[in-house]
Amino acid sequence: MQNHSSLNRTQREVFVIEEDTDLDLASIPTTDEEGQRSESVEGSVTPPPLGRVPEPVRCWRDVFWLCLFIIHLIGLGFVLFVLGTSRFDKDDNLKLHRITNKIFDQSERGQTEKYWPLYAMAGGIGAVVAWALLSILCTRANQTMKVSVHCLTTYLAVISVFCFWDKQIFWGIAFAIAAVLQFMYVMSVMDRFPFTMLVLRKAVKMVWSLPEVLRVSYVFMAIMLLWMVIWSFGVSGVVASNMGDGGRWWVLVVLSISLFWTGAVLCNTVHVVVAGMVVLVLMHGDRRASSMPPKPLLRSLRHALTTSLGSICYGSLFTAAIRTLRWEITGIRSQIGNNECLLCCVDFLFNLVETLVRFFNKYAYVKVAVYGECFNHSARDAWELFQSTGIEALIAYDCSGAVLLMGTILGGLITGTCVGIWTWFKRSDRVMMVGSTAMLMGMILVGLTLVVVESAVTSIYICYAEDPSLISRWDEEFYNQISEALRERLQHRSLRGRDVLAIVGIQHQISVPNPV
User: Fold this and answer.
1) CA–CA separation, 508 and 401 (whole Å)
2) What is the pTM assigned to this prediction?
3) Which of 120, 243, 359, 385 could bridge across to 104 with cysteines, CB 3.0–4.6 Å?
4) CA distances from 494 to 58, 351, 491, 497 (A)
5) Which residue from 102, 149, 474 is spatially nearest to 287, judged by alpha carbons?
6) Is 373 exposed, middle or buried (0-12, 13-18, 19+ CB in 10 A)?
């Protein structure tokens, strides 16, 4: 393997401010010609390279959350069956009106079979959009991502206009706010897109070389569709029930949260499976290498569906919401300017979210796949690894996760729009109920396909942080590009730190009165 020691020295530059306000870029552990790690100036040693990590002894992790998820599925499946059956073929087969009359207001009744075909259409459109988006992404990554980013703002604004036209004031305001936030975020990170597209292209290259992980994604999408058959049966019963709009919306929110958790668990299971495969390929140099363990895909799938499933269920509850909140706060923070009061409030929220990110981040799934650790321990180790090597600056600069989320939302909006238009011709007063839940179905199905690319991105970053030679051996040009980007980001942080110290020093001199 060729020697890249001159580039590896940038791997561990960390921005530290000493007590005497001297700013320094500390040297970091680097890889020598034989792949060994050296010690930092503080004497700490980073973890050994992934290539020499022995297979850990796997034991069941986060069992409580696994049991909670299974109980939730069983209980919810029964509730969905009851809700759908009560309005199937006849009005109120199970006499549920005796209960709902005491809790919710009443409205016009309907039947389950009137709305169930609408959700069947949502599942079909969502699956087609998911397959098409992943196929186009693997062949034309740059164009697909640019279209997703720039079209989403316009799409949200157009839907907002149609909601106001249909006198859906709440939804019109909601989509308008979403369009504004999307526009602000895109404008604030526009300069990061070239690097983001570079990372996404390399992740797509990795995924395209592993067709078996694409098949895993399609299998899990089929499993999700089977669960959506049951879920939509119950939701159709709720939409057709004689409960008032308020009661129906509350029940739909609860059922949507359940579907989101179920979809997130399946997405993150695919994430763990793909991460295990990507790390193995980077460790052994090629998927056909003689040193590869036998049946690596089944090996990763077995770990994800058994010992690591509890960690996946636990992380799926919180990770997506915290990531989305962090992206929005980051975008707003960069647009505030010199408003110190508002900046102080946003910084407080930002620091709070950063604390949560330490324990709930998507990079934990790579650690779960490789080491079989519990979720919180994996998330903490991954974040500390990035901070200790300086790669956290590069991750903060990368917007690949946000770009993929935009593609997911766009796929969901397309699904919801198609189903909403059909619903408007059948029952115009149920458009938003059916359209919003159909949008959620579409987002989950699209997310199940795009997660393979996101998993490749997270795996590349973890491998680059733990053993840069793995990335150098896989793609030397990309290694040089990402090392140069890391050097630039660390230098940028260093300059910003000097500016902050200079401002603090000037303000301190002004605030201290001269002695008489």
Assistant:
1) 40
2) 0.80
3) 243
4) 42, 20, 5, 5
5) 474
6) buried
Q: Is 470 exposed, middle or buried (0-12, 13-18, 19+ CB in 10 A)?
A: buried
- The CA distance from 489 to 451, in Å, is 27
248-266 burial by CB neighbour count: b if 16+ within 10 A, else e?
beebbeebbebbbbbbbbb
CA–CA distance, 482 with 478 (Å, rounded to integer): 6
Contacts of 428 (CB under 8 A, 6+ apart): 166
Sign of the dihedral through C-alpha 119, 124, 127, 132: negative
Residue with tokens 């049991």: 67
Percent of the chain with pLDDT over 70: 73
Our separate counts of H helices and E strands in the chain read 19, 2
Q: What is the dihedral of CA 457, 370, 443, 179, to 10 degrees?
A: -40
Predicted pLDDT of residue 45: 39
**What is the Cα–Cα distance from 2 to 219, expressed in whole angstroms?**
40
**Residue at token pair 């699209």:** 446
As given in the structure block, the two tokens for residue 361 are 């981040």
Q: Give the list of residues 6+ apart from residue 431 with CB closer than 8 angstroms, or none.
A: 166, 168, 420, 423, 424
More confident residue, 496 or 345: 345
Q: Would you state the structure tokens that stand for residue 500, as one six-digit string? A: 């902050």
What is the per-residue pLDDT across 282-294, written as a single tens digit (0 to 9) for each?
Answer: 988 888 888 888 8
171-223 pLDDT per residue, tens: 999 999 999 988 888 888 888 888 999 999 999 999 998 999 999 999 999 99
Instruction: Report which secondary-structure segment, H or E, holds 23.
Output: strand 23-26
